[in-house]
Please model this.
Amino acid sequence: MRIRSFSKSARDAILRRGADAVRSVRDAAERGDMEAYEAAEALIRQEEERYSAGLPRVVMSCCPLDGKPLVRSFDPFGLDGDWWRPDFPRPDPAPCRHFCALRGAVHFRGFRRVAGDFEVSTGPEVPYVIPRILSMPSMRAVIGEVPMETGYVAYTVGYFAETRPPAQELTCDWPGQTHSYRTAMGEVGWKPANDPWDFDLRPWLEGRKLLWTMRDTDNRVISADAPETCPYLNVEGDRYSIGVKDDSFWSNGLPDGTAFDHLD
Model:
């Protein structure tokens, strides 16, 4: 279910005006026209605000501890939207206190893979878990499914815990690539999202560490069915990180777990 949304035509118009404003900034900078430069920058901010305000709010998962839906902003209209930029400040509603992280994947379902003029990292095509995080005490994960207007389907995996681990032990939300955090001592740091993935979901399902939402419930109801009935057990598709830009796509390989922590 979508909560508050612009239409695709309105969204596309916003993106076009934003792109025009970016070109105007470059032209004004080359001419040394500061008045035109500042006016174009103001237009960029205006269109960014319109885009953020118009993004659909979508239920992507459901907390297994209190049953509250996890509502996130999302751009289902195409990978050319700014939401898909790794560093885009996504305007997400406040989650429940158990929420820890959201990771995801996009299955292209045989459709042409197309994005905008910037690189998008969609993840693999099939659901996966991050063993390091899911193995944490009281941590559980819930798979959801979000259809896109392009014919693609997004698989989301929300992580929840009764006691939330320290921020520096978690990871960034999808489709971000860098986890920025503040420790309990006030230290600010960041690290790339480089935790290894596990596509073998069966052991996690059988251990009840991994759950899934029932289809046709807008990701609001967690299934109580037996693990072997999970529809995400044997999804076929590319099992590597996919990069897309314009009408080109490629493999970014798999995260290898190399540790990088940077404290500011």
